[in-house]
Write a structure and sequence with these properties.
GMP Synthetase, Chain A, domain 3; 2 domains
Length: 191
């Protein structure tokens, strides 16, 4: 989810939450017979309020409310569920002066394969996503708890530096997330 979409979601949730909190507080206060709320309710014209569903416009108002809510929900879901896939990156070729297109997903898989060869690494997963507006190679590494963290960190930084130099100054981040198995976790080999 993009940063702007997440901010819009939070604002919508805040507004809906505050509205529901207000209605709920009003209903609870009425049920608890709070004098101020009871006075507000007593000012309602009961005949007019109970006659609202009999008005000609009532059905249209309900239909419009359902339609607006449905469209709003579908648009919000579409924004939330959009994939954060990256676009190919055009990298200038120094020798020919032309541009070479690089698929970041394939590059992420290559980085994952490179890190999978490190001793103690049990599994790697890779994907290329947009993270806070920045194309990111996200590699998740699951490793043995006895892994040399210092050396693995150096290896990860070397790979990230290689990616940066390969992409010729394009703004692409490399993220390596390391998960260490529990020390008592048995090693199981998939066949």
């Amino acid at each position: 989810m993009r940063h702007r979409t997440a901010a819009i979601n939070r604002v919508i949730v805040l507004l809906v939450g505050l509205a529901l909190l207000g209605f709920g507080t009003y209903a609870v206060a009425w049920d608890l017979q709070v004098p101020l709320v009871r006075e507000w309710v007593s000012r309602y014209d009961r005949e007019r309020v109970t006659a609202l569903p009999d008005q000609d416009w009532w059905g249209w108002a309900l239909a419009a409310t359902v339609l607006v809510g449905l469209v709003f929900g579908i648009v919000l879901l579409a924004l939330d569920l959009t994939r954060r896939r990256t676009s190919p990156v055009a990298v200038p070729d120094r020798e020919s002066g032309t541009f070479v297109t690089v698929d970041l997903g394939s590059l992420a898989n290559g980085v994952a394969i490179e890190l999978a060869e490190y001793p103690g690494v049990r599994q790697t997963r890779a994907r290329a996503v947009i993270e806070r507006g920045l194309p990111t190679l996200s590699i998740v590494v699951t490793a043995d708890p006895t892994l040399d963290l210092h050396d693995f960190t150096r290896k990860s930084e070397d790979v990230a530096s290689w990616v940066a130099s390969t992409l010729g100054g394009q703004e692409v981040a490399t993220q390596v997330l390391l998960h260490l198995d529990r020390a008592d976790h048995p090693v199981h080999v998939e066949s």
